[in-house]
Amino acid sequence: MQSKFVTGKIIIFTSFIISSFLYSQEKVIISNAKQYGDFIELSLEIENKPNDKFHLIKIDTITTKTNKDEFLKDNHNVEQIFQRANVLIRYQIPSKKFKTVDIKGKLRYFKPAEQNKSYLKLDKVKNLKKNTNLINPNTANTNVLYFSIVDSEEIKKAFIKLKDNENFKKIDFKFYDLMYAFKSSKNQDFLPVVNDEIEFGYNNLTLRNPETGISYKMIKLKKEMTDSERNEIRIDLLIENKVSVKKIPFEFNTVEIKNL
Q: Which of 57, 42, 61, 46 is nearest to 105 (CA)?
């Protein structure tokens, strides 16, 4: 009886070692480190990661320091959102000439799935209640998350009180096929999936209401899309939660930035 118990402990311990070893094999790589004119761009990705909507990455934290001990400053020209393949960050050119940089931080590796309640299938647009938050408070870590299919009247109502609304008045709402409002938090993000795609539309326009922090996005999905086609648009959401995201640390020393 005692020997069986010891054997069980060995099996459990061995299993822990194997799972820890597999976790350590997820390597972050730098796929690009170049200077383009007046900015420096770094591109990071996870080696051998599938390129689909169920394996996404985002920068969680990152610091980049030159060999002159000067920290690079993000120029905020790249929106840090979850991506399928690689994530970018752009920096201002440092004040002192340098040869190499040291890079350290963490990536968020997001694996949405129905099983862990991070992949939510909503419905077709025609079946969704408009101008109301479609994210159940029980799904979010906080009550900050907001996603709503909106109409032009809801957008007008959100911006009518703002002083600088001249450009807003020129918007042709009839041009767009889908309009939605959204707001995420620093610790929990989400992505809409439209007709099974996370990268969708063109001629997109985003307006942010500084008073509420809610953004309104207008999207053209297809040339000459009919009203019946718009009603058939299917919406899903990929929502971060603790079981769907893990943070993968990375550190690179003496990285040379190529000058173009």
A: 61
- Tell me how many degrees the CA angle 102-107-110 measures, rounded to the nearest 5: 170
21, 49 contact by CB (below 8 A): no
- Residue pair 176/151 in contact (Cβ under 8 Å)? The answer is no
Handedness of CA 207, 209, 213, 214 (dihedral sign): negative
Q: For each of the chain's 260 residues, which pLDDT tens digit applies?
A: 444 444 444 333 433 333 223 333 469 999 999 999 899 999 999 999 999 999 999 999 999 999 999 999 998 877 788 999 899 999 999 999 999 999 999 999 999 999 999 999 999 999 999 999 999 866 656 568 999 999 999 998 888 776 656 667 788 999 999 999 999 988 889 999 999 999 899 989 999 998 899 999 999 999 999 999 999 999 999 999 999 999 999 999 999 999 87
Q: Going by C-beta distance under 8 Å and a sequence separation of 6 or more, which residues neighbour residue 81?
A: 58, 189, 191
- Which of 119, 108, 111, 112 shows the shortest CA–CA distance to 57? 108
Strands 258-259 and 28-36: parallel
* Widest Cα–Cα separation across the chain: 81
Residue 56's Cα: distance from chain center in Å?
A: 8
